[in-house]
């Protein structure tokens, strides 16, 4: 097995608040790994730390075997790990065309076959080139999230960090975007690390998951175990009861 992302005893401290407390997670290459836990448990902080966007005070992060230190200055790292956020409106620039937002990362990395990559990425997320010169406000929520996914793909990463990528969308659009993500993962042989508060989504998308509470990982289990109720922690059981998506699926 090849490990794509390894997070070992990672701590993130804001002032004197410990948002992440010796959390460890290991994600295999090609798998889709889920992170669940109550609000404030540190899920986004963990993704942000991997993306180099949170102040790591202790522990280690390795991506494809290489330890990340000062990773934000490392262009190769930026290309291999990309993040998709919950709110595509917040992550897209309101006054720039889709084209411009797709060109930008290519320009930063000095990539020359931009035209081909833009057309490919738009096609892959199910938006034709007709969307290329529109502005974010001229798109639906689902289309905006497709653009955010296209932008994450344009540098041809191997790992996507997905922070509640569909929870701002209507249920039917949510299913479309999840199917799209799954297809992209297969086609590009990507590794996903995905946060969702909806256990129905996580068990559908991910083979294994970690359960977080208070900045710690309190349980690791497979989706099959979760669905079958083979759960060690009461905390995890309570999350299951609280997750509407999961109730719907298991009712
Ligand atoms: N920049 C920051 N400064 C101070 N505290 C922060 C910062 N970012 C996060 N925190 C705190 O760290 C804790 C974990 O936050 P985080 O965003 O990781 O939670 P989460 O599990 O993603 O929750 P949610 O499900 O609501 O998105 C929270 O208590 C939050 O208030
Ligand atoms: Mg969060």
Overview of the structural elements:
The structure is a single chain. Helix 5 (114-124) packs across helix 6 and helix 6 (141-153) packs parallel to helix 7. Helices cover 40% and strands 27% of the residues. It has one domain: P-loop containing nucleotide triphosphate hydrolases (Rossmann fold, 3-Layer(aba) Sandwich), CATH 3.40.50.300. It is of the alpha/beta class. The model has no long low-confidence stretch (mean pLDDT 91). It has a 6-stranded mixed beta sheet with strand order 6-7-8-3-9-10, with helices on both faces. A 4-stranded antiparallel beta sheet has the order 2-1-4-5, covered by helices on one side. It contains 11 helices and 10 strands. The longest helix has 18 residues, at 171-188. Residues 5-239 form the ABC transporter domain. It is a peripheral membrane protein. Keywords: ATP-binding, Cell inner membrane, Cell membrane, Membrane, Nucleotide-binding, Translocase, Transport.
Compact summary:
InterPro entries: AAA+_ATPase, ABC_transp_ATP-bind, ABC_transporter-like_ATP-bd, ABC_transporter-like_CS, P-loop_NTPase. It is a peripheral membrane protein. With 251 residues, the protein is of the alpha/beta class.
**Structural class designation:** alpha/beta
Mean pLDDT, all residues? 91
The biggest sheet, with number of strands, parallel, antiparallel or mixed sense and barrel status, is:
6 strands, mixed
Strand order of the largest sheet: 6-7-8-3-9-10
Radius of gyration: 18 Å
Low-confidence stretches: none
Separate helix tally: 11
Query: Approximately what portion of the residues adopt beta-strand conformation?
Result: 25-35%
Distance between the termini: 36 Å
H/E element sequence: EEEHEEHEHHHHEHEHEEHHH
CATH homologous superfamily label: P-loop containing nucleotide triphosphate hydrolases
Tally of individual domains: 1
- From the 3D structure, determine the CATH topology: Rossmann fold
Overall outline = globular
The set of bound ligands, ions and cofactors reads: adenosine-5'-triphosphate, magnesium ion
CATH architecture classification: 3-Layer(aba) Sandwich
CATH class category label = Alpha Beta
> Care to count the β-strands?
10
């Amino acid at each position: 097995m090849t490990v794509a992302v390894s997070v070992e005893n990672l701590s993130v401290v804001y002032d004197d608040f410990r948002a992440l407390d010796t959390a460890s997670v290991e994600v295999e290459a090609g798998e889709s790994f889920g992170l669940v836990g109550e609000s404030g448990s540190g899920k986004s902080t963990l993704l942000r730390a991997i993306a180099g966007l949170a102040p790591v005070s202790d522990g280690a992060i390795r991506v494809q075997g290489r330890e990340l230190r000062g990773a934000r200055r490392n262009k190769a790292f930026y290309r291999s790990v990309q993040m998709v956020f919950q709110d595509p409106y917040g992550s897209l620039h309101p006054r720039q065309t889709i084209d411009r937002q797709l060109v930008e990362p290519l320009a930063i990395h000095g990539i020359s076959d931009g035209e081909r990559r833009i057309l490919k990425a738009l096609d892959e997320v199910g938006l034709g080139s007709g969307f290329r010169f529109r502005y974010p406000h001229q798109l639906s929520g689902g289309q905006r999230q497709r653009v955010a996914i296209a932008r994450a793909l344009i540098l041809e990463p191997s790992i996507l960090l997905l922070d509640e990528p569909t929870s701002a969308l209507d249920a039917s659009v949510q299913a479309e975007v999840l199917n799209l993500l799954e297809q992209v993962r297969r086609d590009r042989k990507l590794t996903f690390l995905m946060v969702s508060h909806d256990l129905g989504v996580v068990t559908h998308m991910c083979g294994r998951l970690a359960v977080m509470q208070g900045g710690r990982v309190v349980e690791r289990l497979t989706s099959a175990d979760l669905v079958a109720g083979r759960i060690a922690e009461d905390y995890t059981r309570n999350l299951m009861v609280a997750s509407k998506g999961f109730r719907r699926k298991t009712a």
